[in-house]
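Q&A FORM
Asked by: J.P.
Topic: structure of NADH-quinone oxidoreductase subunit C

PROVIDED:
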Amino acid sequence: MVITAASTVETVQGKFPQAIVEVVEFRDEQTIVLKPEFLVEVCAHLKKDLEYNLLETVTAVDWPERVPRFDVVYHLLSLPHRCFLRLKVRVGLRREDHPAVPSVTGIWPGANWYEREVFDLFGITFTNHPDLRRLLMPPEWTTHPLRKDYPLSGFELPEPYWGGQVPYDIDPGVGEYYQQTLRTLRP
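REPLIED BY: S.T.
REPLY: Here is the structure written out as tokens.
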């Protein structure tokens, strides 16, 4: 049996019709948008039965004007069949600080660091994750820098928590205005 991304979508639609929110095909790429509660079950089927044995990445997209606010995006690859599939899960109600998605580390152990990165930078928690803690930001950091409501110039913090913003020593080729730190602006 030849497995393609299109046949994968048909198989998932037939086996898990209650799990699918929508299916999108754009430029010959297939995307399945799933309900969060079915994510682990569908992923287990994709890996075991359809040989999507590589989780390329897990990331998120912030849509602050939309409810649900976040898309958690999974890029899967079937090496034996040479096909690519994208899964999305939409989470985040209004004013929900830490929306939750089930962890897929039990299916693809490599999801561990991807999920930690999404947790750190977007604030999305992964239930049943074996070690969900910050990966890039300091442990006591309270905000999530890849959310679109994060201040572009950062926060004014006392030393030593100045956020790693280093002053420019040289003119980067755009004039005197940019010889400053990222925290302070010169008039």
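FOLLOW-UP: The domain at 5-149 is CATH 3.30.460.80 (Beta Polymerase; domain 2).
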